Amino acid sequence: MFAYPGQEEMLRDIEREVAYTRHEIGRDAFAPRVMAAMAAVPREEFVPESGRHRAFANGPLPIGHGQTISQPYIVALMTDLLAPRRQDSVLEIGTGSGYQAAVLAQLVRQVHSVEIIAALATAAGQRLGRLGYDNVSVRHADGYHGWPEHAPYDGIIVTAAAPRVPPPLVEQLKPGARLVIPVGLPGSVQELQVVEKHADGAIATRNILLVAFVPLTRAPAGSVQG
Length: 226
Known about the structure:
28% of the residues lie in helices and 25% in strands.
C-alpha cells in the first residue's frame, strides 16, 4: 500500500499528534482526504539527498537557504484547517521545497505558490513538474503581497511566520474563504491562526496552536516581483 518506506509510520505519528493536541485544535481526526493526500505525496522527494533517511520523521528538516520543510503533522493540520475543496483555487506563500504545494495539489483544482528565494522557487517548480504536479504554478516574488493576478482565492496558506497578518492576503481572499497563517516574531510565541472572511466582508480570527516557523522574509524594494 505504501510506496515509500516510513510513510505508514508518518501517518501514525500524525494521528498520535492529533490525539495529543485535540483540545487545542478542536478535532479528533483530520479529514480522510487530507490523510490520503499526505500518504500520496512522496515526501522524500522534497528533502535534500543527505536528509532522505529522515524524510518521514515527524519533525521539520532543513532544505537550505535557512529554510525548512515543516513537520508532517503541521502540514496536515494546516491543510485540514484550510478545508480545501476539489474545485478550489488556493494560494500558498512560501513554496520552500514544494511539499505543501504538492499536498494541496492532490486536493484542489489549482495551487498558486509564491517563494521569495529564487533558487528555491526554481528548484521547487522543476521538482513539482518532474513529479507530475501540473496544477501548481510557482512564482518568485515577495509573498507579503500575495499573487493578485489570480485573486480572489478560495483559501490561502502561509508557511512562514509574519509579525501580523498581511492585509494584501486578506484582500485576496474570497468571501467565505480561510487564511491559515502562523503569526509572531522569531524567537517569540507564534500562534497558528485561521482568518475567515465572512460573506459580508467581516473578518474573524481564531488562534489554534502554538507553533515555531521560520520568519516570513521581505524583499528590498525592487529586488523581486510583487
